[in-house]
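Q: What would this chain look like folded?
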Amino acid sequence: MLRSRGDKGLGLARIWRVGTVLRRALGLEWLVTGATAPVLLFPTLRPTWTATALGMLALWWLLRWALRREPWPLTPFNGALLLFSLTVLTGFRVSLFPDLTIPKVAGLVLGLAVFRALAFAAGSERSFSLALVLFFLLGLGILTVGVLGTEWKQTVEAVSVWTRGIPRLIPKLPESGAEAVHPNQLAGALTLYLPVALSMIGGWRFSHRSIARSVCSLIGCALCLVLVTGTLLLTQSRSGWIGGITGIALTLALWGTALPRMSWRKWAAWGILIVGVSLALFWFVRIGPEGLRNLWKEPAIETPVGPLNTLEFRKEVWQWAWMGVQDFPLTGCGLGTFRRIGRVLYPFNPAVVPPDYDIAHAHNIFLQTALDLGIPGLVAYLALLMTALALCERVALTPPPPPSAAPPPLSHTVGEGRGLGGGVRALALGLAAGLVALHVYGLTDALALGSKPAVAFWYALGLVAALGQMERGRDD
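A: My prediction, written as structure tokens:
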């Protein structure tokens, strides 16, 4: 009897140890998310693998809920994410074309998984630094695939001279309706990264405590800035250029506002911004209101950045996309289905939009979101953006703790963050400017929901959520 009680006690101890090990292993959710990412990016290539990956994620999330009491990370995004997820389910159910909708849903599941993994994992300087490095590596991957797989445009002759010599080594991406990567899609992803790299350089200072790390962070951010800027110019995407310029201007304005009054960087930021704005105003005054009206009415007129004849195409698509939003205000027409639904329901002008042309999206991220998910989905999407910008503002403008207090996980003062170069302030300002730049680009183009490069958007939101988590932990 005593032996039986002893055996029972040993059995319970073993179960407890196994449970402890399992609970700790469930904290490595970012590894599972990374393992499922390639499958969810191309979900229709191996449907069985895709179902297995989705099942693995669902099981992992349920186990974490059951064993660690962590159903979802506590973030200010949660209310908007709940509404957004419900509208995604609606957009899936009303879809008449599952072959178009399933890849978008898989891409959104991956985006939410990336957001969740980052919000859970990035709780220390080391893990956050790793997450930031992976963010830049993701951008490098998007840039590399884009450069090697893009069919370069010949819009601006001064730039086209350089693109003609770039070989196209990737013939066609799987599941892509187009024969090549569209340079506008590449440009959209780069507009998110440009302000982040610029801001990290602006906030960098040499650290005596970690010389190698601080120097490597500067070199890495500088290299990223050069590659992103150069590639963005090569895309010849006027939407991308406008978004990139907006991101640069906003980064300078935010740094000019956030820095102390006596900082030379503050005056340098404002000086560069004032010169840039003055040049832009000079250009607008020189064109005049009449010239702007002519550009809108006759966009094929030659300009210093090439003819704007694609504006006529966009005006036609916007007209019928807005009609689609009015026809399906609550549910949308189905996630990713406008490219076919639009052809069936609306009489596009064949002289502007050829009958055989694939209208991949509405060429406006807000119209496209409303088409995919209905107006409730657009409201949820806007709430995500507003929450991200508000969190970035709170993190960037929160004063550093007094000298007597224990240091936070990451320094708020410019140049004292060892792993991040300029600390969380630089990253928060850069992410805010990057999100705005991406959506300025999105006024005339779109990284549609669930598209492959759009995973960078969800990664950025995850970084913002992690910053908010760390800030809240410091306040507590």
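The mean pLDDT is 83.
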